[in-house]
Amino acid sequence: MPTGKHRPETPAKHDHMQHFELAMKDALDGWSAHGDKEHRVAFEVTVSPNPGGIKEYRVVIVEGP
Asked: How far apart are CA 55 and CA 33, in angstroms?
């Protein structure tokens, strides 16, 4: 189950898809698929308390359905 992670320099409050894209790239770099299969992708975050922001973005690829 490949998991990609991205930690912004400071907790992020904007441009979340840009950070998820970097986490997705990290997950795909560690993944070796064989054949056509269904997979699920989970998007996860670690949020810091106020004033807050997202400290870490994670993308997890799981063989599905």
From this structure: 29
pTM for the whole structure: 0.86
> How do residues 27-38 score in pLDDT, each as one tens digit?
999 888 777 888
CB under 8 Å to 4, separation ≥6 — which residues?
Answer: 22, 23, 24, 25, 26, 27, 28, 29, 30, 58, 59, 60
What domain range includes position 44?
Answer: 3-63
The total domain count for the chain is 1
Q: Name which of 3, 41, 6 is nearest 21 in CA terms.
A: 6
Q: Is the dihedral of CA 14, 19, 20, 21 positive or negative?
A: positive
